[in-house]
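Worked problem 6 (solution included).
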Amino acid sequence: MTYTLDQFVKDAQAALGANDGPAGREKVRVLVERLLTNRQFVEAAVGPDAPMGTRKLYEDKELGFVVLAHCNAKPHKSPPHDHGSSWAVYGQAIKHTDMTEFRRVDRGTGAGEAKLEKVKSYRLEPGHAGVYDVGAIHAIDYPEGSRFVRVTGRDLDYVRRLKFDMAAGKAVTIESATAGSA
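Solution. The predicted structure is:
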């Protein structure tokens, strides 16, 4: 039987309802990989005829998690960043995304002086997903045409997050229209 977005949502609700910590998020990661085996879903959500850019596929009003489709026309390399009080699962569908994880070594937690240390780098290939827990710092680098599904613990438009300028040794707040300034 084909694993659908509706089934994924029900299973993610059950997983996060039973455990909203790292174990529940790991279950969501596994579920994202299962969802990516559905060729019809991948084709509709992030296939060649899907709209370019980022679009919301589902938002859970009770638990807060959001399922997003990312269809990237241009290559992009992000600076190291976190998702603030949220978490994220990236599930690669088409091409790849190179991920680099960092650890903050200056003992800081907010904006200001910041020093990061690279922990590991790896490539997410189609069908694979990675989980980035609350406060995890990572950077993404993907080629033109890369497409992935991302599940976040909350709508990131409402979450204050940090991005890191490693050359300047600074962390700055990512501003969004709805999260406001720090």
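Discussion: The longest helix spans residues 5-18.
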